Amino acid sequence: MVQKRKPSSSHNGTDAHDAKREKPDLSSPHPNAKQAEDSGIVLRQFYPPEMSNARCEAYNNGTLERPIESFERAYAETLETRKSIKPNAAVVHWFKSDLRLHDNRALRAAYEVAHDHSIPLITLYILSPQDLTAHLSSPARMDLTLRTLAQLQKDLGELDIPLYMETQENRKDIPGRVVELCQTWGAHNLFANVEYEVDELRREAKLVRLCADSGIKFEALHDSCVVTPGLLTSQQGKQYAVYSPWFRSWTAFLQENPEYIEPSEEPGSNPGNARKTFQDLFDSQVPAAPENKRLSDERRKHFRELYPEGEHAALSRLEAFLEEKAKAYDDERNSLAGQTTSVLSPYFASGSLSARTAVSQAKRANRNQLDRNEIGYVSWISEVAWRDFYKHVLVHWPFICMNKCFKPEFTNLEWEYDEDHFRAWSEGKTGYPIVDAAMRQINSEAWMHNRARMVVSSFLSKDLLIDWRRGEKYFMENLIDGDFASNHGGWGFGSSTGVDPQPYFRIFSPLRQSERFDPEGEYIRRWVPELRDVEGSAIHEPYGRGADKIASKNGYPRPIVDHKESRERALDRYKRASGAK
């Protein structure tokens, strides 16, 4: 069942949807909405124009009901109806971004109901091309998802559990289609794990009511976060907007409530005779990728080698990291030259590995401690916890899922929309070697080290002053580990527009970042072949340290902007947007 969350401090004991308040004009779009739309930031195929800052404030003060609150209200208002519904011919688990058997809360709960009543368990996956487009899912992530589904189907088949898969062209029809399938199979019980993005919470609120009206008991469980959003609040009863105190609260909560970190068991063999009753479901084919999300055969082979699919590969990679690299993680995690991180983010994003399992195993390796003993384990647990933090932020400030930043006033900043500069950044041709190496890595491997992500996001939003949302969108459309909450949080940090950001006046120097985190230039030489013959420290600044001839001969571009001048320009615009004096 949905776990209770602490009441929002902004409601003051009043249901937001019933509140009789003097409302501001929330219908007018933001003044810069047309520029955002022209740059492809707001996808008008699915969404209205960019919202006003007044509408963001309405979510903050409780005038507008948050999607999580709409979902919880639907859950509460259908409680008695759902209690009266009894199991029938089958139980259904709906897979979404939880493609695993191990430590899957909703799947285990569905199995237990099926087991207790000796009826078949059926699993379901629906591919929505419109959702993939609306949510900017990359072809690389789509490929990993489809490969993972094939492995998941095989693993489920060994337990005599069918996985039925289909494509639903119209995203709005998904709730009705889920109900239709449950009715076809005679299932009165539907289980799924909660997804916290706005579209998904609104869909699930609709589905809760639709199921109840159709005689189906829909149970949505909190699974993707180690600690459920809403359970951690400050002493003032508010949602944390700064990571450090939030992480202390997160750690203390897990120490006091160890059951939250205990992985759930995998399902056993299907308790009902699904092979007899639902034989046709075992023949379901993995859907094809939509045309706009397809990879070439060469790229598919490349990504298959880099990121093997499924939970077996994920658990193996987790085990190897904890045994071989985790102890040194705190010292080496920012190094760009070697592979010092876990590269588990694609598996978190696809749901073939739960954050709970990762933290639980790291805690065990660290002599059952979350915040002491080996600093390497503690540091890595803290990095995994950032994923929870950003989802907690998303739930409480839902407008960040609507093309807005945590600090909406920075929407008013005088952003640039220079297509030549954006193209140079995206292609890795800015004349700043560390930036170009990072961008060429994402274009080749659909992944990038977190330190590199911070460098390129700062460069785009501050050196080039290009609207940070263009970078956020580019990452989602190209990363294999594209997770909205984490990606938005990272771009909020780099552009100083988000929750717990670096202050706007702290602007990364690409040269300094290069010298600190790639001191020998190994990372640059790997990804920028034009500079492989450059020796010594000139690799970090070839046109300023005597390597002009080599760089020019090999076609490496000169810097497209001067960092010192860009820094002053950024400081001025951020200062004016923030209202600082």
UniProtKB/TrEMBL annotation:
A biological process term (GO) from this entry: circadian regulation of gene expression
What is the required cofactor set for this protein? FAD; (6R)-5,10-methylene-5,6,7,8-tetrahydrofolate
Is Lyase one of the keywords?
Answer: yes
Chain positions covered by the region annotation Disordered: 1-39, 543-581
- Cofactor note, please? Binds 1 FAD per subunit.
Q: What does the entry list as the binding residues for FAD?
A: 329, 341-345, 380, 383-390, 481-483
Per UniProt, the keywords (alphabetical) are: Chromophore, FAD, Flavoprotein, Lyase
Q: Where is the composition biased (Basic and acidic residues)?
A: 14-25, 560-575
Keyword Flavoprotein tagged: yes
* Molecular function GO labels: deoxyribodipyrimidine photo-lyase activity; DNA binding; FAD binding
In terms of InterPro entries, this protein maps to: Crypto/Photolyase_FAD-like_sf, Crypto/Photolyase_N_sf, Cryptochr/Photolyase_FAD-bd, Cryptochrome/DNA_photolyase_1, DNA_photolyase_1_CS_C, DNA_photolyase_N, Rossmann-like_a/b/a_fold
A GO cellular component annotation in the UniProt record? nucleus
What SUPFAM superfamilies does this protein map onto? Answer: Cryptochrome/photolyase FAD-binding domain, Cryptochrome/photolyase, N-terminal domain
List each copy of the Photolyase/cryptochrome alpha/beta domain by range. 89-226
Q: Give the site residues for Electron transfer via tryptophanyl radical.
A: W415, W468, W491
Q: Which family does it belong to?
A: Belongs to the DNA photolyase class-1 family.
Q: What protein name is recorded for this chain? A: Deoxyribodipyrimidine photo-lyase
Q: Which organism is it from?
A: Aspergillus avenaceus
Instruction: Give the source lineage, highest ranks first.
Output: Eukaryota, Fungi, Dikarya, Ascomycota, Pezizomycotina
